[in-house]
């Protein structure tokens, strides 16, 4: 089960543990998708606290000091702890760090190492027998130092309640993957578009086991045909596989049928249009493939829990 799948309708509680000389870029890529998800869902789906090992400010590799927003000494725990480190990881691998991370592992349902955060987790014995990745420049040293870990050169790895990303850009990919698993691929696509990037979880089949290029092609066809929706057989043809096979692939990859994903993709586009307050509800409905504004309003309410007029 995904680390925070159970939190679909609740608030996922995240600790972000920063070590000295962490990467600002990595921190932003880990947190900004969560902020965007909260905005898109119009609720606090994700709540996070910045933590530091000694409750004192830490300075990023680019010289920016960051204050913790909550004390770590009591480790309140939560659904997942992001371990964010970059330079000086060998010096950070101390008995104090080991105790801190081992205690965290008993209080957080999952741990994710970003950049050299994987090294600190491995040094604490928290990745033994697992698949894990780390920054490419350290992959050989990591494999030699921790032979009990299955070191992979993937951009990111999700192995049960242990996750790892090899760098700042792949941190974004991993968090986007987790958002997609919990709230659906359509939301992950919306966030990817907001940051002007592709959704690697489906666009790059090698990103993780189960990645599917046919699903990616189908979703692209949906996005390109919002105003005049295509029938699902035509979507399957655009994806290059039979409809029944495409439906099976969607069930495996996303946990939903193409029809439901298409509907949510259209309604997410409608919500973006309404937020801009530039066009009326009837025109929004038409642009997103609903000839009847009343039918659009009913579908919108079923999906988001309120009428389009409330969104405006």
Short structural description:
By secondary structure, the chain is an alpha/beta fold. It has helices at residues 24-41, 89-92, 95-107, 117-123, 139-145, 168-183, 185-194, 200-203, 213-223, 232-239, 243-253, 258-276, 281-287, 293-304, 308-311, and strands at 12-18, 46-51, 58-59, 65-66, 78-85, 108-115, 131-132, 150-151, 156-159, 162-165.
The number of helices is 15
Low-confidence stretches are 199-210
Percent range of helical residues? 40-55%
Question: In angstroms, what is the radius of gyration?
Answer: 21 Å
Largest sheet: 6 strands, mixed
The CATH homologous superfamily of the largest domain corresponds to Class I glutamine amidotransferase (GATase) domain
Give the strand content: 5-15%
Structural class: alpha/beta
CATH class of the largest domain: Alpha Beta
Count of strand segments? 10
**What CATH architecture of the largest domain would you give?**
3-Layer(aba) Sandwich
What average pLDDT do the residues reach?
Answer: 87
Shape assignment = elongated
Q: Which fold name is given in CATH as the topology of the largest domain?
A: Rossmann fold
Distance, first to last CA: 36 Å
As laid out across the biggest beta sheet, the strand order is 2-1-5-6-10-9
The succession of helices and strands, N to C, reads: EHEEEEHHEHEHEEEHHHHHHHHHH
- Give the number of domains: 2
